[in-house]
Write a structure and sequence with these properties.
The complex is a heterodimer of chains A (about 120) and B (about 400). With about 120 residues, chain A is α/β, with parallel strands linked by helices. Chain A contains 4 helices and 5 strands, in the order βαβαβαββα. Chain B is built from 9 helices and 29 strands. The chains are: A alpha/beta (about 120), B alpha/beta (about 400). At the A-B interface, helix 3 of A face helix 4 and helix 6 of B.
């Protein structure tokens, strides 16, 4: 089963993602700040990270940079309520960019695409 | 078209040691009163380029000081800037891993400025170039990357990026420092070399830098980014740097080694120098050291003080001695009976009575004692100094010899 790390500072959203994606068959890890996610990645190696941008302690842009530097093979999906970051050069390091919603349809599609791509590119 | 210029000035310059012992390569003094970076900065100025960042990493204090003292000439009120950006570990806890990584780690600045084109320059090359025709060429060809090139002798290929282009100047192959280079179609003795000057369509560059950051790579423009772009079919073009009137290749030198650094000084001399610093249409700017005029004086029974085919800066005192085919920075003194030949003496160097120097580079403030000979017995010199393969001896800064 693929493991997904959800990074978001909104507790109720984290719970929503956890229950929905667990029901889809994913193993779900959660972190509520970028810093927490970066620390968790020192111990666990998920197949994909879903990253919010606006978070306390360390925002998603900075955390994305650290994930790329330290775990080149772990793809990241940006999941934010703001479309403006789509044009931010630093956000281009993410594989996908999804506008956050309580409807998970777009996120589910993005997860499938990213996991398919990483399984086909891994040796 | 908004253009941001990045000058890469972070290399260690190990092959220029000991001149780079206490300074980055672009800060190494050159041509009497200049630093190497002055030539690239002057090119920017004469090209109307006014938005410039210098990316530094190793031993940057001397460079920062020079830029602050000599180049505080742009007007921020008009949107102009010239900033020195030190390595900041903004992305992660790592220094720059290569030239491409230096730019990747500064994506946040590109994001703030959002230039349409990014001009990448090297802070350690000697040449006089107006970048505007190259930028125009880039736009005319709707290129994603334009690499400035010029013909060079085939023997230099192991130090250079080698380009092969088609009739429309589209780059078809790029080899970085090859031992067996592909030569120019009409001249098997020469290669078409990359000058390390790139114009990128910024968005394309950012995508390629991110891809590179995620892959196992040396994170280098020459080794990784450019070959990848050529292979992937990106629109990469070669802009051949020629004299617009004669179409002859222009002077360009990568002063990567002690030998090439010394040779570049010799290129300043002679009746019609290969590299002319006296062109009124292309004054080179720098931070000037204030000193009285150079003084050449006779010493009784030791001669008049003779200078032949040399450059002598302010503050020098040549007392009854001989200076031949040499370049002297400010405040150098050469005492009675001394002979300085084919040499480069940096600021504040003192050559004692009767001392003899041949093919020697003496870094700042060093003192050559009376009667000492250097450059005449290389075996002996090797015991104490760096002697490069071309037989040039280097005396490090602040040396006090016995």
């Amino acid at each position: 089963m693929p493991t997904v790390l959800i990074v978001d500072d909104e507790k109720n959203l984290l719970e929503l993602y956890r229950s929905e994606l667990s029901a889809d068959g994913y193993e779900v890890l959660v972190a509520s700040t970028g810093k927490e996610a970066v620390e968790l990645l020192q111990k666990k190696k998920p197949d994909v990270v879903v990253m919010d941008i606006r978070m306390p302690e360390m925002d998603g842009i900075e955390a994305l940079g650290k994930v790329v530097a330290r775990h080149k093979n772990i793809p990241v999906i940006i999941n934010t309520a703001f479309s403006a970051y789509q044009e931010d050069f630093r956000a281009w390091a993410a594989e996908e960019y999804v506008i956050k919603s309580s409807d998970l349809t777009e996120l589910r599609k993005a997860l499938k695409r990213v996991l398919k791509k990483s399984s086909s590119s891994s040796p | 078209m908004k253009v941001l210029t990045l000058i890469l000035a972070g290399g260690r310059g190990e092959r220029l040691y000991p001149l780079t012992r206490d300074r980055a390569k672009p800060a190494v003094p050159f041509g009497g009163i200049y630093r190497i970076i002055d030539f690239t900065l002057t090119n920017c100025l004469h090209s109307g380029i006014r938005q410039i960042l210098i990316l530094t990493q190793y031993r940057s204090f001397s460079l920062e000081k020079h830029v602050q003292l000599g180049w505080n000439i742009l007007c921020t009120k008009l949107g102009e800037f010239l900033h020195v950006v030190s390595a900041q570990q903004r992305v992660d806890e790592l220094w720059y891993q290569g030239t491409a990584d230096a730019v990747y780690q500064n994506l946040y600045i590109l994001q703030q400025i959002r230039p349409e084109l990014t001009l990448i320059l090297s802070g350690d090359h000697l040449y006089k170039m107006d970048y505007r025709p190259m930028l125009q060429f880039h736009m005319d060809h709707c290129a994603e990357l334009t690499v400035a090139t010029l013909p060079q002798p085939k023997e230099l290929s192991r130090h250079l990026g080698v380009i092969e282009m088609d009739r429309e100047n589209r780059v078809v192959s790029f080899q970085e420092k090859p031992l067996n280079p592909r030569c120019m179609p009409d001249d098997p003795t020469r290669i078409l070399a990359s000058m390390g000057i790139y114009v990128f369509e910024t968005r394309k560059m950012v995508r390629r830098l991110i891809e590179d950051a995620k892959s196992d790579s040396q994170h280098d423009f020459g080794r990784n980014i450019i070959p990848k772009m050529v292979e992937s079919g990106d629109k990469v073009y070669s802009y051949v740097f020629r004299d617009p009137r004669t179409l002859e290749p222009m002077y360009w030198r990568d002063v990567g080694t002690v030998g090439s650094f010394w040779q570049a000084h010799m290129d300043l001399l002679g009746e019609s120098p290969a590299f002319d610093l006296y062109d009124p249409n292309w004054p080179i700017l720098t931070h000037e050291i204030w000193a009285p005029p150079a003084r050449i004086m006779p010493v009784r029974n030791r001669g008049n003080g003779e200078i032949f085919d040399s450059m002598v800066s302010n503050g020098c005192v040549i007392e009854g001695s001989s200076v031949v085919r040499s370049v002297l920075s400010p405040n150098v003194s050469v005492e009675a009976g001394a002979e300085v030949t084919d040499s480069v003496l940096m600021e504040g160097v003192r050559v004692g009575r009767g001392a003899r120097l041949r093919k020697v580079i003496v870094d700042k403030r060093s003192i050559i004692p009376a009667g000492r000979s250097i450059g005449y017995d290389l075996e002996e010199d090797r015991r104490l100094f760096t002697v490069c393969e071309d037989g040039v001896v280097v005396i490090p800064a602040d040396s006090i010899l016995e």
